[in-house]
Write a structure and sequence with these properties.
Blueprint: E1 3-8, H1 14-23, E2 27-33, H2 44-47, E3 58-59, H3 62-66, E4 72-75, H4 83-95, E5 99-102, H5 116-129, E6 133-135, H6 138-152, E7 161-168, H7 175-182, H8 199-215, E8 222-231, E9 235-236, E10 241-242, E11 247-255, E12 259-266, E13 279-285, E14 292-297, E15 317-327, E16 359-360
Parallel strand pairs: 1-2, 1-4, 2-3, 4-5, 5-6, 7-12
Antiparallel strand pairs: 6-16, 7-13, 8-11, 8-15, 9-10, 11-12, 13-14
Helix pairs in contact: 4-5, 6-8
Length: 363
C-alpha cells in the first residue's frame, strides 16, 4: 500500500528524510514544508540534491498542507527552541487525522516522561483526529532503548546500565543552535541552555525512565552532571573557530542508581585523540563488564569518533570545572509497593518489540 506523506522542513535532518521519501516506492510525496525564503517554490528533488523533478514544490502554508489529508507527516523542523509554535503545527496535523513521525521535541521520546504542557495538547489532538505521533532519533532514542535492551537480552542479570555516546560536532554546520546549546566557543563562565538545572534530565531522563520502567525499577530521583574542557590551541572546523580558553569539549550524564545516559560532545578532531570518523554507542551492562555492544556507522555531514571515557585527556585541552545537580521534577516520584524493596534491574523482563507507550495515540 502506498502511503501519502508530507515532509515538514528541509534542514540538516529533513534533507535526508526528504531524499528517502522520494526514493521509496511505497511512499507518495504529496507535500513539502520549507521556512527559508530561498527554498520556497522549489521542487522537492532540487531541495535534497536529486536529479529530475517530483512535481511537488515547497510551501510555508501549513493550512494547505494539512488540507492535503496525508497519511503521515515527517516532522523534522527544529522545535526545541520554539515548542509552542511546533505544538500548534503538530496539533493541526494530528487533529485532522494525519499521523506524525518526528525527530523534534525530543522530550517525547518517552511520552510518560514529558511534562503535561507538552504532552496533553498533543494527546488531545490525537483523540480528535484518531491519529498517532511517534518521536525518535539516534540519541535520545535508538541508542537509549533498542541497543541496551539488545544487550540485556544476552545476560542473566544487570545491576546497572550505562549508555555512552561520543560525538565530534566539528563538521556539523549548525553553530546557531547546536553550538549555542552546548556552549562551544564560549568561555567556561557562560552557562549554555543545555546546562541549566533540569534541562539534561528533561532530554535524557526519558530514556533512563524507559529502561527503569521496563525493568521494574523505581526511579525517585534523576541526577545531572557535566564537565567542561577548554582549548589551549586554536581549533578550526566547519561549525566554528574555537580560540584558546574557549569551550571545546563537554561530558554530560543523566542517571539514577540503575541506569545512566553519558555523552561526550567535542568540536573538531584536534580536540582529542580521534580515530577514524564514526558514530559510536557503547552499551555497558554491569556485573558482565565483558558484555557490550558497539554500533558503528558512517554519516555524511558530521564526524563521530570513538574515544573511551577513561582515556587521558589530550594536552590540547584544559579541564575547567565540574558541576553536579540533583533534579526531582514535581510528581516524578514513583513509590515502591508497600513492604517491598526497590527491585533490582533484571533482563528477565523482556520488553515488547513495539511499545504502545512510546507513541501518543487516540486510545
Amino acid at each position: 500500500m502506498t502511503r501519502r506523506v508530507i515532509q515538514f522542513s528541509t534542514g540538516h535532518v529533513g534533507v535526508h528524510a526528504l531524499r528517502s521519501l522520494i526514493e521509496r516506492p511505497d511512499v507518495e510525496l504529496v507535500g513539502v514544508h520549507a521556512s527559508s525564503p530561498s527554498k520556497l517554490g522549489k521542487d522537492a528533488a532540487e531541495l535534497c540534491g536529486l536529479a529530475g523533478e517530483t512535481g511537488v514544490v515547497s510551501t510555508d502554508d501549513v493550512d494547505a498542507l494539512v488540507a492535503l489529508g496525508a497519511d503521515c507527516v515527517v516532522y523534522t523542523s527544529q522545535a526545541e527552541s520554539r515548542p509552542q509554535a511546533a505544538i500548534e503545527e503538530l496539533t493541526a496535523f494530528l487533529g485532522a487525522g494525519t499521523n506524525v513521525v518526528a525527530s523534534s521535541l525530543v522530550w517525547l521520546v518517552y511520552p510518560p516522561h514529558a511534562d503535561a504542557w507538552l504532552r496533553e495538547p498533543l494527546e488531545a489532538a490525537c483523540v480528535r483526529g484518531g491519529s498517532t505521533m511517534y518521536v525518535n532519533g539516534i540519541d535520545p532514542g535508538f541508542s537509549g532503548d533498542l541497543l541496551p535492551f539488545a544487550a540485556l537480552s544476552l545476560t542473566e542479570r544487570a545491576d546497572t546500565i550505562t549508555v555512552q555516546e561520543i560525538c565530534d560536532y566539528g563538521s556539523y554546520d549548525d553553530a546557531e543552535f547546536t553550538g549555542v546549546s552546548f556552549g562551544f566557543g564560549t568561555t567556561p563562565d557562560v552557562v549554555p541552555m543545555l546546562f541549566l538545572p533540569g534541562v539534561l534530565a528533561s532530554i535524557w531522563g526519558g530514556p533512563v525512565r524507559l529502561l527503569a520502567d521496563e525493568l521494574g525499577v523505581v526511579v525517585d530521583e534523576l541526577r545531572e552532571r557535566h564537565e567542561t574542557w577548554t582549548a589551549v590551541e586554536p581549533i578550526d572546523c566547519t561549525m566554528m573557530r574555537v580560540e584558546p580558553g574557549q569551550v571545546a569539549v563537554h561530558r554530560i550524564e543523566t542517571r539514577n542508581d540503575s541506569a545512566s545516559e553519558a555523552h561526550e560532545q567535542r568540536i573538531g578532531s584536534e580536540a582529542l585523540q580521534a580515530k577514524d570518523p564514526m558514530l559510536a554507542h557503547n552499551e555497558h551492562v554491569e556485573e558482565h563488564p565483558e558484555l557490550g555492544l558497539l554500533h558503528l556507522s558512517r554519516h555524511s555531514g558530521i564526524d563521530f569518533s570513538v574515544f573511551p571515557l577513561d582515556e587521558p585527556i589530550h594536552s590540547a585541552l584544559k579541564y575547567h570545572h565540574n558541576e553536579i545537580w540533583r533534579y526531582r521534577p514535581a510528581g516524578s516520584y514513583i513509590p515502591a509497593a508497600p513492604g517491598s524493596a526497590t527491585p533490582r534491574a533484571s533482563s528477565s523482563r523482556t520488553p515488547p518489540a513495539a511499545r504502545a507507550c512510546r507513541t501518543l495515540t487516540a486510545s
